[in-house]
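Before the break, one more example. Copy the sequence into your notebook; we will annotate it together after we see the structure.
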Amino acid sequence: MKYSDRIKSHIIKSWKKLSFAYKFLVIFLILLSITTAGLYSIAYWYQQRHKNEPMNLGVTFIADYANYLGVDPHKTFLALRDDLGFKRFRLVSFWDNIEKTPGNYDFSELDWEFQQVNAVHGNVSLAIGLRQPRWPECHMPDWASKEPTAKWYPQLINYMTAVINRYKNNPALISYQLENEYYLSVFANCPDSTKQRLINEFSLVKRLDSKTPVIISLSNNYLGIPLNQPRPDQYGVSVYKRVWDKTITRNYFEYPFPSWWYASRAGLTEIFTSKTSMLHELQAEPWPPNGVIGSSQDELSKSMNAKLLSARLKYGEESGFRDIDLWGGEWWYQQLVLHNNPSLWNVVKQSVNKVNINNQKL
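Here is what the structure looks like once it is written out:
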């Protein structure tokens, strides 16, 4: 018997002697290794494919949240623009703010925000629809919330039509973000959250404004590939790394996903749909057990401080996404002016400057 045959025979005999549980473990580890290597390869492909594209680093701004934190919304916005140097803003069009009574629209705040972005030749990604960023996410007027779907939904369509027609030719507008995290019911339970409603609204946006890209955020930030309709121009992903887990551990929980995990998802999405992905919410503010206002500075620092923020910004950059909107600008400003804490502000300023320098080298 040849030496190679003896080795083969020995391996087969040894394998047969192993218990079922041990065999299962070995096979599982082999498959896990193959899968991890495959996903990492896809992540590397996605990162290399887009590495020479400029990075568009933006920030979400919500006037209501600035008010909630006790800071002037307009001063906050201008500081984000002029001091930190942001030219890309993710803005909102809350239905309950703009149409407080049926058919009467007040666009004064959103008009002002667009004007400030246009003043520096910046860009706006505009959230539209019923569900938009920030609690309670379902921003429905009181007068509409008391009505059945058959009555409030046509009103929502009228409202969305008014928003799109008002801003579709604005030079700052570069994209719409339709129905924020539409299927993520754990944080909000909007009425009539059916796939058909999302399809109908996507068709509405494209019919009213065919030239502006539409972003739809994924309902699951960690697993899966979006294969169903509607098929937007770009997919959005949110990344929260350190949060208070109120369900199982009742403690702070750090999600273990490495940055390349999101690149692998983006790569698979691009392979199967030919669409790119963007990071529409990168956590840059704390997630404490009792909310930002109800927590001490020490408690807030457990889930976000200057060191964690710096690491988070690096994590976002390493993910391979070229469009990244930070989440927490109003809080950095509150920390700066009300708590005499410029550390977060300075970290973001350094990051914005770094991105600008790197983009100039491309």
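The first strand starts at residue 56 and ends at 60. Strands lie at 56-60, 88-91, 123-128, 173-178, 214-217, 234-239, 242-245, 251-254, 276-283, 323-327. Try to locate both features in your own notes.
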